[in-house]
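hiii so um. not sure if this is the right channel but i have a protein structure encoded as tokens and i wanna go backwards to a sequence. like what aa goes where. can anyone help
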């Protein structure tokens, strides 16, 4: 923001001046209108800068809000305000930004469609403009300066590095052919990028504060889970227009935030985890949705069930479940209890709980992975509040083992061709460690500490499983390429606070070693 725009909103500022026995002193609201509104929006919901609301600010890792106001933010347009405001004013402003908005503006089909921006420079191409293996393309999200690097998964050459909306969260989702990728930011922007053309296609704001996205199996629809407003948006992947916006209210009318949305390809449905009601929602997009259990009875309107776009089914659960993991058939969903203790298995076919899960210490099921173990399949999940990894038998739902780690972890990855599971230690003094676990013995065989003191987290494999890519999650960070067998570093790729990496093949084939 330049000094001209800094001064542009005096009218609004004056209306919120607080008089303290003499000279007028600007309260936080006035300071906001004077200094911040032109970039962050008069209603704090974002503009060229991100939304400044608790739902967004709470989730930002990095410097404290007051420090950002004082010193600005490197590699962004956020200037320093140390000379424009006193330290007390900055403290007050930072505190005010963390208070919830009085009113959430409408954000439905009309507003979403109006936010759509298509890239005028985008031109369709018939084939990739590069010669790499399209199935081994790997994306790295760089949260330090809000970019994504597009890498050749064989040579690790960066083919493109493009800007994303501010604060990308969750895994980008590829279309079934691996040509287009969709990326979501916490402020609800969804960006479509053409990997063949190495060009952004466009973007749209599908929510005001969003959680994640899911792609339909046929590649036609992209579902966006929103906290603000309490909705699920379904977009057409073709042109990013709205197909439907579902208001989310439980059976008794209680509104709910959507914690996350998942694709269930064999069921041709999206499955929703809800934060505020003990229900699981399933929204069908296929031609032949099952003919029972829908919230909306289309028969009363004289319609066939196939006439209803996106029919919805609400399943009541015995507990609030807000982080999911699915078995490979997508019949069973494992849900972590919102309280952070325990979980349940719900059978989506019969809509009933079939088992309890012994999962203390806030499991992060969304990061879970599976592999064959003896004559069964196990699922392993880290815990955000406990230095353990739980390994669960997916036939009996019993805990096979609890692996002690050097601290709570966030992400896990493996690959069909690798005998190891990689698990980070994201929190605490050992966040510079990465455990490598043998899939057969369930023992930690090696603990890597490639850059002492630096957070190392999140792993992705190349298509063939030969290399494991590890993020050094720091501003001046890097992606380390490990030989997945010898566990030696073979290449270092400098990057700005890299977070997740995503290999086209592993994602579109639903590799068991990766979260979906
Ligand atoms: Fe995430 C994935 C929820 C905090 C980075 N995170 C996910 C998914 C969910 C989720 C439901 C799966 C979505 C998907 O890929 O479709 N994350 C949550 C939370 O509830 C939590 C604990 C609190 C919150 O802030 O909302 C949380 N997540 C974080 C972070 O603080 C992380 C480390 C940094 C950041 O960018 O915000 C973070 N989450 C990630 C990443 C993925 C992710 C990189 C994708 C992992 C993958 O490999 O697919």
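sure thing!! here u go:
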């Amino acid at each position: 923001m330049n000094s001209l725009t800094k001064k542009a909103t005096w009218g609004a500022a004056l209306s919120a001046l607080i008089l303290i026995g003499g000279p007028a002193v600007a309260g936080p609201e006035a300071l906001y209108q004077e200094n911040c509104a032109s970039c962050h929006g008069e209603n704090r919901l974002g503009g060229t800068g991100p939304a400044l609301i608790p739902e967004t600010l709470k989730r930002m890792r990095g410097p404290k809000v007051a420090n950002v106001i004082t010193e600005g933010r490197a590699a962004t347009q956020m200037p320093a305000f140390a000379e424009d405001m006193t330290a007390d004013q900055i403290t007050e402003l930072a505190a005010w930004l963390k208070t919830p908005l009085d009113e959430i503006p409408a954000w439905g089909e009309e507003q979403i469609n109006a936010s759509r921006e298509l890239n005028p420079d985008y031109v369709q191409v018939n084939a990739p403009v590069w010669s790499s293996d399209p199935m081994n393309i790997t994306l790295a999200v760089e949260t330090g300066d809000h970019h994504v690097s597009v890498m050749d998964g064989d040579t690790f050459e960066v083919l493109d590095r493009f800007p994303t909306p501010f604060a990308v969260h969750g895994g980008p989702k590829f279309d079934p052919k691996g040509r287009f990728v969709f990326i979501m930011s916490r402020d609800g922007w969804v960006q479509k990028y053409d990997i063949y053309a190495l060009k952004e296609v466009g973007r749209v704001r599908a929510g005001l504060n969003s959680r994640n996205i899911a792609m339909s199996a046929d590649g036609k629809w992209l579902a966006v889970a929103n906290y603000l407003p309490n909705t699920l948006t379904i977009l057409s992947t073709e042109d990013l227009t709205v197909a439907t916006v579902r208001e989310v209210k439980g059976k008794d009318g209680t509104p709910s935030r959507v914690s996350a949305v998942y694709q269930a390809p064999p069921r041709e449905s999206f499955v929703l985890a809800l934060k505020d009601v003990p229900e699981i929602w399933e929204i069908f997009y296929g031609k032949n949705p099952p003919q029972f259990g829908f919230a909306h009875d289309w028969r009363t309107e004289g319609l066939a069930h196939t006439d209803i776009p996106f029919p919805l089914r609400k399943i009541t659960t015995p507990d609030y479940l807000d982080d999911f993991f699915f078995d490979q058939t997508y019949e069973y969903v494992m849900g972590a209890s919102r309280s952070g203790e325990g979980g349940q298995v719900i059978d989506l076919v019969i809509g009933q709980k079939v088992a309890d899960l012994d999962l203390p210490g806030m499991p992060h099921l969304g990061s879970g992975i599976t592999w064959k173990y003896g004559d069964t399949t196990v699922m392993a999940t880290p815990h955000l509040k406990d230095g353990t990894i739980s390994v669960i038998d997916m036939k009996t739902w019993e805990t096979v083992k609890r692996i002690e780690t050097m601290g709570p972890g966030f992400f896990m990855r493996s690959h069909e061709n690798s005998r190891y599971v990689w698990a980070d230690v994201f929190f605490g003094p050992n966040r510079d460690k990465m455990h490598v676990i043998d899939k057969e013995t369930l023992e930690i065989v090696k603990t890597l500490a490639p850059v002492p003191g630096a957070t190392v987290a999140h792993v992705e494999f190349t298509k063939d499983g030969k290399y494991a890519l590890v993020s050094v999650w720091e501003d001046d960070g890097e992606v380390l390429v490990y030989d997945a067998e010898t566990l030696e570093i073979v290449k270092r790729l400098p990057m700005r606070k890299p977070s997740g990496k995503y290999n086209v093949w592993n994602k579109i084939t639903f590799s068991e070693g990766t979260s979906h």
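oh and The longest strand covers residues 221-228.
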